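Model it.
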Amino acid sequence: MNIYKIKTFAFAVMAASMFASCADDIEMNKVDENKYASAEKTLVFLTDKYGYSNVDSLTFNENGSTDFYVNVTKPAASEQGYTISYDLAALERYNKANGTSFQALPENLVTIGGQAVVAAGKSQSDPVSIGFSTADELEKNGAYAIPLTVKANGSAEASADKGDFIYVVRDITKMPNCHKGTGQIVISCQETNDANPLHNLCYTLKESGKYVIDQVILFSGNINYNAETGEVYNFNNENITHVLENRDKYIKPLQDKGMKVILGILCNHDRACCTHLNDENAKKFALELKAKLEAYGLDGVFFDDEYCNRGDYPGFTTYNNFSRLVYECKMAMPDKLVEAYYYSGTSSAQKINDIQGVDYGIQDYSRYSDMSSSYPGLDKSGMIQASSEFARGSIISESRARQIVTDGYGGTMIFSLNPKNGYVSRFNNITIPFYGEETVQTGSYAKDW
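Modeled.
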């Protein structure tokens, strides 16, 4: 079965509901500065580190922070200082204009890191850090707004429509982690072209409150070939890149609750095949992956052998050498997880120097079998069975999930979870046999970039 060809339908991200605990919608827009270009007066407005104006969001555990910027429509003739203030009136204006009812995060839980200074000749200030923290009185899994306003000085006027910023924060501090302790895990292999990784935070067990998802695979980065150097390298498209470069927003909240975040590696329609690297290239690629995982604070790598043009090329083998790649990955980063899709060339990895490099073997959709001969030395707890394809509606049955428990296998995988297909009934087929609890959906995160 082809995991990459399955595309979930595009869905609206403007006016996407963040939280089930409130009915408020938030609309996030990048700034269009062209509309201010002809203004006679210098206007001043706020943006956050992600380039949004008016409103943005972040999920946090215990505490968090982000950077804000003061922007002016005309470069400053001299150095100018501006004050970013906590302003309840800004939230009142926003709620009234948008028909929402966000509650403010108490001001004593918010810190604003000083004055915003726009240097002479510049149109944006240095970053100003906005910090926030939890408190006992905050609602479990609650969404709160931090209302901010920029105070203009004598030479500029606050923009009527961009001077305020409503920063919505979701506090998951009181939520339990994902460690259920039964021996079975749920891996979400998520198509990042269509979905927000934070949506994996929206499914919990009814009684214990534990998160259902244990691992999130960011699907997918690629292995590509550099024709000039004759070497392979990791390429990540704009969606994977966005998630990685904004790890505080999309990755850290998952890890804060115990979820492992894994970088998927998929072949990309050229000669770079993760299963046919020679020993030297396998070692080099493993070291590159180590650098990427460390740079972005990821927990492992997942290999999928599809879309490569195998051939008798320099730097490659004519035989399956996947065992060498996973061995080199395990040698380079023994503290990271190495995972393989039980499909095509990644469906086998023999021991090298008596070491099995694969930590988890993940079955194709609906497939169920022992993988001991394919990954010698892999424990049954590392065998992930009977995967589901949520976009197509190919869902594991409750009886099959119960068999996973009875046979002592490590769990199951779901692919392509997003707000349009993540029905609680589908999760119940897994969580009732695995954990003896139904699933509850606690909100929804649409793709917001």
